[in-house]
Design brief:
The complex is a heterodimer.
Chain A lengths: L5 H22 L5 H10 L2 E3 L4 E6 L4 E3 H14 L3 E4 L4 E4 L7 H9 L17 E2 L14 H11 L14 E4 L13 E8 L2 E8 L11 E8 H18 L10 H8 L1 H15 L6 H12 L11 H9 L1 H10 E3 L5 E6 L10 E3 H14 L3 E4 L5 E7 L3 H10 L14 E2 L14 H14 L2 H4 L4 E4 L13 E8 L2 E8 L11 E2 L4 E2 L3 H15 L7 H8 L2 H7 L1 H7 L1
Parallel strand pairs in A: 6-7, 7-8, 16-17, 17-18
Antiparallel strand pairs in A: 1-2, 2-5, 3-14, 4-5, 4-13, 8-9, 9-10, 11-12, 12-15, 14-15, 18-19, 19-20, 19-21
Chain B lengths: L7 E7 L5 E4 L5 E2 L11 H12 L5 E12 L2 E4 L2 H8 L8 H4 L6
The chains are: A alpha+beta, B alpha+beta.
Chain lengths: 554, 104
């Protein structure tokens, strides 16, 4: 875990004091809303439909138990007793009062947390593989580099007034769990001839113009990586379009200029920038790495785990879905689903946050992670502790065995909260989850990712959902478009639209018809939804969704 | 021929609380849409929006929202305004918490 230096602490204290004064000046009338808005956004404070919303960064998704308890305290003291974990590893509080926000920020700072650059046209919270440092398949832990990027990008003087926001994701594994191809820059750590570096992907993004990122460089050694990234952002900062906010993201710049032209410009800029990096960044990286040293994994028998697995079918079902392989064979990675059927995806109560913090402290070397899939992870757990953890989770509605299944839905807040939304997403997610739970089909259906956004900005990642749902306002009524075949992993793909959208009360039955079609079409129980879709294509799904069109054509 | 003017209410968010408020005929800000002034004249609507915007130390983001006359006062014509006057659909938070207002 990264521990703040004196510099970090002093910087944050000063920044929070500045914002406190800005809030006071807004309230006493010295600042207009036009003047105040960019200042509050820089500090993560939005005004939504029903209230203010404070978005707190959880850099690369990593939290200690003390930090998680503090997030619980904020939820209880200044909000309505819960928080919402987002698709970019942040937590949002939906009901703060303007007067309370400076105190909330101070309370966060006490535990090394902040809301800086969670909004605005800056480099946003750097996200990472939520299994980082624990995954069996990783080359190296990406978090030290993510922390270096956080420090580099925070208040970076050149990058405070960019054409648009800029999002970076990093993974240490070939199996991409961080959606690096849908980020402005995606980094995959790779090793070449004993040298650690990164493959650099650029120009991915979702929103109204979804694009899969392209390879800018197949390998940049760590020594050069920060200079190379600075060169990349700098090229875009200079030539990215400022005339039209919908064409301002780097994906459009890459699309308009072509990846080869961008690469040439980046390389040219890199030669200018590189001499400014004299090794201080590498010295800092070495120091940061020390903060992320793996815990001393305890040894011990896993017999109790094996016997519980054999004898307790509920525990077995949970292990089969919610546990991932750890690099240490006696350990496991636990994903705690905060998506009990019918609950709001990503919401956790203050009490649940404390339970998860306690479990992390007792059993998981004091570490937690937040995933972009809106779940909470205990990254290092000795297998013999799994039965006790499962028992505790059951008491707090946290033991749902649905990770990777149809009810493990990503959903943005949608029009229940968001001022930008054009339709609701949360109730659609709730109803899909409840429906398939009632049908008891979930485990038979297997691996299936549904992702729902309440507007074209695509915070719910619908383009890369196996089934994507996009809520729109069509002539004053909520309407939902469906895409199929999206993929958020290393084989990233944007889904294909099925056809006309569905009304609010038609969308769950439409999803059911898609799933029924999959179950009919799959060649075995092992063939996943995505594999079936790739094999049979859109036609059978279309036929099931639009029987009238088929009848008319006949 | 000019298009018929759709009646409007002036709405905004409260600066301190952040919640949804409506301008009343007697120049108060109410939490209830039913108490809002329903404006049926376009020129008057612009004047009332200016009146609201002058109170920048109390409110944020005033705008004119479509509404129609109902039995108990103005009612929303669009689902977004319906959510704004009640609250989110996943919890009984927002205005539903204090004054139950079943959705039309």
């Amino acid at each position: 875990m990264y521990r703040y230096s004196e510099f970090d602490t002093a910087f944050l204290a000063e920044r929070n004091a500045q914002f406190r004064a800005q809030v006071e000046r807004r309230i006493d009338g010295s600042l207009t809303e036009d003047e105040f808005k960019p200042l509050r956004l820089m500090n993560g404070l939005y005004l939504q439909l029903h209230a203010y919303m404070l978005r707190v960064a959880i850099p690369y998704g990593t939290l200690s138990s003390a930090q998680m308890r503090q997030l619980a305290l904020l939820a209880e003291k200044w909000d309505k007793g819960y928080g919402h974990f987002t698709t970019r590893q942040n937590i949002q509080y939906n009901w703060p009062k303007l007067n309370d926000v400076p105190d909330m920020l101070d309370a966060l700072a006490e535990f090394g947390m902040h809301a800086i650059q969670t909004s605005g046209n800056t480099i946003r919270n750097v996200t990472a593989d939520h299994f980082a440092g624990a995954a069996a398949d990783e080359v190296a832990d990406p978090r030290p580099y993510a922390e270096l990027l956080r420090q580099w990008s925070t208040d970076h003087p050149e990058f405070q007034f960019m054409p648009r926001k800029f999002k970076i994701a990093i993974t240490g594994s070939e199996n991409d769990r961080a959606v690096i191809k849908a980020h402005d820059i995606g980094l995959q750590l790779v090793e070449r001839d004993g040298v650690l570096g990164a493959r650099v992907i650029v120009g991915g993004g979702l929103g109204r113009t979804p694009m899969i990122g392209k390879e800018l460089s197949e390998f940049v050694a760590f020594d050069d990586l920060l200079a190379y990234l600075e060169a990349t952002v700098s090229v875009w900062n200079q030539i990215g379009r400022r005339d039209n906010k919908y064409k301002a993201r780097i994906k459009i710049t890459v699309h308009e200029h072509g990846i080869d032209a961008i690469r040439a410009k980046v390389n040219e800029r890199f030669l200018q920038v590189r001499p400014q990096f004299k090794g201080a960044d590498m010295a800092l990286l070495v120091e940061i790495k020390g903060h992320f040293a793996p815990p001393a994994f305890r040894e011990g028998s896993v017999a109790s785990f094996e016997s519980a697995y054999t004898n307790d079918p509920v525990f077995r079902s949970w292990v089969d879905t919610n546990i991932a392989p750890h690099k240490n064979a006696d350990h496991a990675i636990v994903t705690i689903s905060i998506k009990k059927h019918g609950q709001t995806p990503g919401d956790a109560t203050a009490e649940q946050m404390r339970v998860m913090a306690d479990l992390a402290e007792e059993f998981a070397y004091d570490e937690l992670r937040i995933s972009h899939e809106q779940n909470v992870i205990l990254p290092h757990v000795h297998k013999s502790d799994l039965p006790a953890i499962h028992a505790r989770l059951k008491e707090h509605e946290l033991a749902t065995a649905n990770v990777g299944l149809i009810s493990d839905i990503i959903a943005c807040p949608g029009m229940d909260y968001c001022a930008l939304a054009t339709a609701r997403s949360i109730p659609v997610a709730q109803e899909i989850a409840t429906r398939f739970d009632d049908l008891k089909l979930e485990h038979d259906i297997g691996h299936l990712k549904i992702k729902i956004s309440g507007c074209i900005n695509a915070c719910g990642h619908h383009h890369v959902g196996h089934i994507g749902i996009l809520g729109l306002d069509r002539a004053g009524v909520e309407n939902y478009q469906i895409t199929l075949g999206g993929d958020a992993t290393e084989t990233a793909a944007v889904g294909d639209r099925t056809g006309p959208g569905f009304a609010y009360d038609e969308i769950v039955p439409a999803v059911e018809r898609i799933v029924d079609t999959y179950l009919e079409q799959r060649d075995s129980a092992e063939e996943t939804f995505l594999e079936t879709y790739r094999r049979v294509g859109m036609a059978p799904f279309k036929a099931a969704l639009y029987p009238e069109a088929q009848a008319n054509a006949a | 021929m000019a298009r018929a003017f759709t009646p409007k209410v002036v709405t905004a968010n409260d600066l301190l609380e952040g919640d949804v408020i409506y301008l009343t005929e007697d120049d108060r800000w109410s939490r209830e849409l039913t108490e809002a002034e329903l404006i049926t004249d376009e020129a008057h609507a612009q004047v009332r929006l200016l009146d609201a915007s002058r109170q920048a130390n109390k409110i944020v983001g005033a705008y004119l929202a479509d509404a129609i006359a109902g039995d108990n006062g103005p009612e929303p014509t669009h689902f977004r305004e319906d959510f704004r006057r009640t609250g989110p659909s996943n919890y009984a938070h927002g205005k539903q918490e204090s004054s139950p207002q079943p959705r039309a």
